[in-house]
């Protein structure tokens, strides 16, 4: 919290361990995942981090419906076990393997079943959405994607963005990030997003490839700033 105040960077968001799988059909692994998430939530509260981003998990052959129910149930337990203010942001995925959360319908079901609406939201990743089949490369496609999200979940549930271009084409369901404007998404989708007044106050985070130092991040940030009207 002190570092955040000194740097002027706010809000600060955390991301849970990628090893956590709340949708696992293995009960022992699901219990371990829940305990790990609770530990990270408590740590976030201690550090003054308001949001913890997480992936909904993988059903590992049990099916999407069962995976969604299991993930939502564990999220409910986690929120009941850890006091506010920590809130959880479920991140959409590309849909690799049996990963859940690549369709807005799945995210909607997870949030509804988990309850605690004041402490649940979404982190929307542009690469993941594109790989899952959501096309934002044209103004019409961008508007349609956001209308669909709003209809199923509500745009007010977006509390953060991960801004990443995609190395793979639309609908590939392969999660491969690349630099802004240098992948299959292109610049227009990011132009629509950074100029969307509905999201002006929503934090936008780069997960683009890292080189040495901060040169790559600075270049991607400069690209995004040039897109502002």
What is the SS-derived class? alpha/beta
Count the strands? 8
| Helicity, as a percent range | 40-55%
Number of helical elements: 8
Q: What global shape is seen?
A: globular
Radius of gyration: 17 Å
The strand order across the widest sheet is 1-2-3-4-5-8
Distance, first to last CA? 33 Å
Low-pLDDT runs of 5+ residues are none
Largest beta-sheet characterization: 6 strands, parallel
The proportion of residues in beta strands is 5-15%
Describe the model.
By secondary structure, the protein is of the alpha/beta class. Helix content is 42%, strand content 14%. It is globular.
Short key terms for the protein model shown above:
229 residues, 6-stranded parallel β-sheet, two-stranded antiparallel ribbon, alpha/beta, 8 helices
How do you describe this structure in short?
With 229 residues, the protein is an alpha/beta fold. The chain has helices spanning 2-7, 27-47, 64-81, 104-114, 126-131, 139-152, 187-194, 215-226, and strands spanning 13-15, 51-54, 87-91, 120-125, 158-163, 165-166, 177-178, 204-206.
């Amino acid at each position: 919290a002190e570092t955040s105040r000194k740097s002027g960077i706010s809000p600060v968001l955390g991301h849970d361990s990628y090893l956590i799988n709340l949708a696992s059909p293995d009960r022992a692994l699901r219990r371990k995942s829940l305990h790990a998430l609770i530990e990270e939530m408590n740590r976030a509260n201690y550090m003054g981090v308001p949001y913890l981003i997480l992936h909904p998990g993988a059903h590992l052959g049990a099916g999407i419906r069962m995976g969604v129910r299991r993930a939502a149930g564990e999220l409910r337990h986690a929120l009941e076990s850890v006091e506010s203010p920590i809130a959880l942001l479920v991140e959409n995925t590309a849909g690799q393997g049996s990963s859940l959360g690549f369709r807005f319908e799945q995210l909607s079901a997870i949030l509804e079943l988990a309850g605690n609406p004041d402490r649940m939201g979404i982190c929307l990743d542009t690469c993941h959405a594109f790989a899952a089949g959501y096309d934002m490369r044209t103004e019409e496609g961008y508007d349609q994607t956001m209308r669909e999200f709003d209809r199923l979940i509500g745009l007010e549930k977006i509390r953060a963005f991960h801004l990443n271009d995609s190395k793979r084409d639309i609908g590939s369901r392969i999660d491969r990030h690349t630099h802004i404007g240098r992948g299959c998404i292109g610049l227009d989708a990011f132009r629509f997003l950074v100029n969307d007044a509905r999201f002006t106050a929503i934090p936008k985070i780069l997960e683009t490839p890292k080189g040495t130092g901060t040169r790559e991040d600075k270049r991607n940030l400069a690209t995004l700033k040039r897109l502002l009207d």
